[in-house]
Q: What sequence folds into this?
C-alpha cells in the first residue's frame, strides 16, 4: 500500500510526519526515541530525563501510528477532530506507517533495540477499528518478536479486552475524574464509566495505564483514584496539552502541567 509524505517536523528526540494514503486521506505517524532507563517510569515514579542525553533508537524506539484518518470521538483538546472527514484505516495501512518509519532509518535494526514499541495513539480510536488493529498487531508480532504494543482507548462500551495480554499494554485515556466534565472533554456517548474502567483486568505483562491530560486542577481527585483504581493493577500517567487549533478554541492553554522540554 503506497503512502506519501506531505511534510515532517523534527524535534529533539524524533520526528512527526504528515502522510497521505493512496486515496488522499491524511494520517500522522511519529518516530521517537528515549534512553532505556525511562522505561522504568513506575519504579522511578516519573519519566524525566537525567541529562541532555536523549538516547537513540538502539535504546527505546517508539513508533506512534494512526488507526484512522480523523476521529469520531472529538476530544476537546485534539486537533484530529478538525479534519472534515474520517476514514478507518485497513491493517495494511497501519503496517505501512511502521514500514515507512523503518525505511527512514535503515541504519537501525528494531530487533536489536532494547525496546521496540508501537504506540496506537495518534489519529483514531483503536477499539472502533479493532479488526484492523488486531490484524496489524498479529503481523507485527510475526515480523518482530521483541515488539511491545501500547493501545490507547477512551473506554468504548462493550469492548473486548480479553486479547490484551503478554506484550500488549492497555491505556485508558480518561482525562478527568469528574464524570460530567469528562463527558464534555470526551463527547462520545458510548464510553465506559470510571467505575467500569477500574474493573477491567488484562493478562498483559505490564500494568494498565490510566492517562489524564489535565485541563483543570479539579480534574484530579485522590479519592476517586483510590476508589476506582488499584495501584497493583494501574499506573497513572499525567500528560500536558499539546496546544493546537481545537484546544485554543476551547481556551485550554497547556493545561495545569507547565513543565517544558528545555533540551
A:
Amino acid at each position: 500500500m503506497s503512502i506519501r509524505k506531505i511534510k515532517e517536523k523534527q524535534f529533539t528526540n524524533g520526528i512527526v510526519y504528515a502522510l497521505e494514503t493512496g486515496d488522499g486521506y491524511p494520517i500522522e505517524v511519529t518516530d521517537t526515541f528515549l534512553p532505556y532507563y525511562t522505561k522504568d517510569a513506575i519504579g522511578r515514579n516519573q519519566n524525566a530525563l537525567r541529562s541532555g542525553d536523549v538516547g537513540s533508537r538502539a535504546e527505546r524506539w517508539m513508533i506512534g501510528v494512526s488507526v484512522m484518518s480523523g476521529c469520531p470521538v472529538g476530544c476537546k483538546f485534539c486537533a484530529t477532530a478538525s479534519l472534515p472527514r474520517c476514514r478507518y484505516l485497513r491493517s495494511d495501512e497501519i503496517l505501512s506507517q511502521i514500514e515507512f518509519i523503518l525505511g527512514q532509518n535503515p541504519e537501525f535494526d528494531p530487533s536489536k533495540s532494547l525496546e521496540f514499541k508501537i504506540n496506537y495513539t495518534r489519529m483514531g480510536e483503536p477499539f472502533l477499528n479493532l479488526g484492523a488493529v488486531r490484524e496489524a498487531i498479529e503481523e507485527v508480532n510475526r515480523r518482530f518478536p521483541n515488539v511491545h504494543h501500547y493501545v490507547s482507548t477512551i473506554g468504548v462500551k462493550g469492548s473486548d479486552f480479553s486479547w490484551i495480554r503478554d506484550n500488549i499494554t492497555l491505556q485508558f485515556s480518561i482525562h478527568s475524574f469528574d464524570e460530567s466534565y469528562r463527558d464534555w472533554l470526551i463527547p462520545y456517548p458510548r464510553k465506559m464509566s470510571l467505575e467500569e474502567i477500574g474493573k477491567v483486568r488484562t493478562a498483559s505483562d505490564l500494568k494498565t495505564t490510566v492517562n489524564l491530560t489535565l485541563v483543570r486542577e479539579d480534574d484530579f481527585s485522590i479519592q476517586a483514584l483510590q476508589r476506582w483504581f488499584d495501584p497493583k493493577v494501574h499506573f497513572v500517567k499525567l500528560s500536558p496539552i499539546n496546544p493546537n487549533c481545537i484546544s485554543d478554541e476551547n481556551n485550554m492553554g497547556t493545561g495545569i502541567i507547565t513543565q517544558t522540554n528545555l533540551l
Observations:
- The chain has a mean pLDDT of 93.
- The domain at 3-249 is CATH 3.20.20.70 (TIM Barrel).
- The radius of gyration is 18 Å.
